[in-house]
Every structure is written in structure tokens, then in C-alpha cells.
Amino acid sequence: MKGVILAAGKGSRISMRGKPKPLIPFLGLPLIERNIANLVSCGIRDFIVVVGYRADEVKSYVESLAEKYGINIQVIVNNEWDKENGWSVLKAEGQVQEPFVLIMSDHVYESEILESFLHRVERQPDGVILAVDYKTKAPGHIDLDDVTKVFTEDGKIKNIGKDIDKYNGFDTGLFFCSPVIFEAIRESSREGDTSLSGGIRQLAKEGKAQAFDIGDGIWYDVDTEEMFKKAEKYFLKKYNEPKQKINLDGPISRLLNRKISLLISRRLVYSEVTPMQVSVFSFILSVLAGLVFFLKGYVPLLLGGILAQISSVIDGVDGEIARMKNMRSEFGGWFDSVLDRYSDAFVLFGLAYHSTFYHNSFMCWLAGFLAIIGSFVNSYSADKYDGYLKKRLREGKKRVYFRVGRDLRVFIVFLGALANFPFTTLAALAALTNVENVRRIVVVMKGGKV
């Protein structure tokens, strides 16, 4: 199956961003690349991209994506890009002989919409299927003055257009088309309407235009600055929600760290900073925290605690940027985990050393040893324990679990430094982490497979 992407328009209402609309960065990725990446993740490997305004610039960038994603991309130039979008669709005629997915380059979708839509359209129609948004009551994600409206009955499109009075849904710009769409657009153009909607209306007359309900899915047409900012705010949060629909963030991550890290990520995602660089920076902060703990006095203790907590917040940014910029990798996740273990060791070893300024050395080092071992096993056992929590979710159990993780451990270090109780903090961590590890063993053992 091929994907056809319309990227010919000028986007005058968002032109203040200085780039052709398809190349405007959205959370770190140009709009057109984000759509290509999402379709690739759904299994589409062959693309036709129709460009027009500033064609050479868009064409050059789009063609560079072929090697990056290991896909086939054919770029077609529409020199009549300032006309209605049906002309851009017609430019793809002759390049597709089988049903294809048609999408607008300036729309952004939740991945669930694309996945469910493409699963449905495996049953190929002799006509078109349009993904329709039926959420017409107070649609904050819709620009009602610009959106194309749809009226459907019994899953069939009866009318479509920007100015129709009777409607019960919105056109999301996501279509599954058979080649009959080309003749339908030509027929519509003979009646004076060269828009894609005009072609859909022609097929609707023949009963060949079906509607697919996207349900609760959210999408945005980022054709104005206002809608761009709304979409950015929504997807910033969406890209960092757990796909398993279970919140495995620890309490500190959920209530504090994530709120701050998302503010940082929103800025860094438009920079050249990579997730790997963020991981290393977070690690350096932890090393500095551990080294500062080697100095005697309350000020170094407090400074070390602050550095450790800042590092914990930054530790969430790398994953957020990776998800938003489609830069996730197994190595990146593994490397971040390795640095986290070294970070824990530096911070706890430094705290143990600092405690010896005021307490018996043997007890300080014993507490430090137990805290480090407990933290390491806590992290090591997290994968199996999290798998158990996901299993509980599938069985319909509660969605939020109390979880002792790195976020809580580091926050305890911060609070202990703030309160000037280094040894008490170390002893508390030694007890908490090891008791938690035993609890996990018991919980998983009682829950079934270990």
C-alpha cells in the first residue's frame, strides 16, 4: 500500500514561522516528516509526495528522508499549487494503480487514529473511506471557521464541504482511496469544483464514500498559529503518556519531576540537543553532586542534594525528546539506564562519605553499602515488577500503583540534605530500598509467574 501526501500549499496563515508549511518543525520534527514517520510505523514503505510552493526546498528535504527511514519516496511537483487541492491529488494519477492512503502534510494525529484506520481499510473499497471526527460539541481541537464539515448517515457520506449547514462530523484529512477518486475529481472539476471534497461528493452520490469513526481520537489541522500552539501543548503531553494506559511513573515523577521536565523538553525539542547529550548532562550533575558531598558543612550537603534533584528532573528529558523527535532506540534506553546506576552510586557513596564527618565511620559505610545495593536491586527488579503491574492492568485492576523508584530515592536525598540529616537519610534509603525489594518478590510470587 502506498501513502500519498499533499504538501503543495503555501500556508499563508502560518507563514510567519519562515518555512514552507510542510517543513515547519512541530515538537522537533517537520510536519511532513512526522506524518511519514507515523505511517512508516504502521507499515507503509512507499510514498508519493506532491509539492508545490517552494518546491525545490521541500523536495530536497523529503527526498533525504528516504535513506533516513529506509523507504521509497517519489516527489511530484504541482506547479498549480495555488489552485484547489484536487489538482494535487490528480498529480498522483498514473503513479498508483491500487488503493492508497491519502493524508495532508499539515495535519497531526494521535498514532491510535492511524493504526485503527489502516487496520480497518485492509478491506479495500471501490471508492473512498474518510476518517471522520464526530466530536462536534465544543471541539477545542477544531477551527470551526476553517474545518471541512461532513454529514453522514449509516456510515455513508452524504455531503461534505466547508460551508454546509447540516453536518454531524469533521473531515480529518485522512483518506483511503481507490483510483476512482481521480475520475471523481475530474467530474467535479467539470462542474467548477476542483477540490478533493468535490470529488468525495461525486462518489457520495454513487454511494461510494464511506465514513470511519475515529472515536475519541484527537487530531489537529495546524493551519494557524493558534491551532499550532494548541496542538503543540496537547501532543507534548500525549507523546509522554504511557502507551500501556498504566502510570508506572513514581510519585515524585508524576507529581513534580514530569511537570518540570516537560517545560524543559518543550524548549529543547526545537534545538539540536540530542537525547544522548541530555543523558550525559544528567549523569554529570549526579557526579558533581557526589563530589560536592565530599566537602564538610551544610552548604555542600545542600548543594549536593539540589544537584541530585536537578539531575533527576533532567533524567526525564532525554526520553521525552526521544519520543517527540522519533529518536527512540534500544541502545539509548539501555545507555540511560547504565548511567542511572553509576549516578546512584556516585550520589550515595558521596553521601556516605559526608556522613562520616559526623557519625561512626563503620555505620556510615554500612548504611551506604546497603543503600547502594538496595538501589541497584530496586532498579534491576523494576522490569519484572512493572511487567506484573501491566498484567494486573489487563485484568482490569487499578491503573496507578505506588512505586518506589529512582525518582523517590533521589528526592529523599534532596530532602535529607535540606534537613541536614545525611546519615538518617542514608539509613532510611538502605531500609526503604531493601524492604521494597523484598515486597516486590512477595507480590510477584503471590501474583503468579515470577
What key phrases describe this protein's structure?
alpha/beta; Spore Coat Polysaccharide Biosynthesis Protein SpsA, Chain A; Four Helix Bundle (Hemerythrin (Met), subunit A); 2 domains; 9-stranded mixed beta sheet; 16 helices; 13 strands
Strand and helix layout:
Blueprint: E1 2-7, E2 25-26, E3 29-30, H1 31-41, E4 46-51, H2 55-69, E5 72-77, H3 86-91, E6 100-104, E7 107-109, H4 111-120, E8 128-133, E9 149-153, E10 156-161, E11 169-177, H5 180-190, H6 196-205, E12 209-213, E13 219-221, H7 225-238, H8 251-268, H9 275-292, H10 298-314, H11 317-324, H12 330-355, H13 361-380, H14 382-394, H15 406-419, H16 422-447
Parallel strand pairs: 1-4, 1-6, 4-5, 8-12
Antiparallel strand pairs: 2-3, 6-11, 7-13, 8-11, 9-10, 9-11
Helix pairs in contact: 5-6, 8-11, 9-10, 9-11, 9-12, 10-15, 12-13, 13-16, 15-16
Task: Describe the model.
By secondary structure, the protein is an alpha/beta fold. It folds into two domains: 2-234, Spore Coat Polysaccharide Biosynthesis Protein SpsA, Chain A; 242-447, Four Helix Bundle (Hemerythrin (Met), subunit A), CATH 1.20.120. The chain contains 16 helices and 13 strands. The strands form three sheets. Strands 1, 4, 5, 6, 8, 9, 10, 11 and 12 form a nine-stranded mixed beta sheet that branches. Helix 8 (251-268) crosses helix 11 (317-324), helix 9 runs parallel beside helix 12 (330-355) and helix 12 (330-355) packs antiparallel against helix 13 (361-380). The chain is elongated, with a radius of gyration of 27 Å.
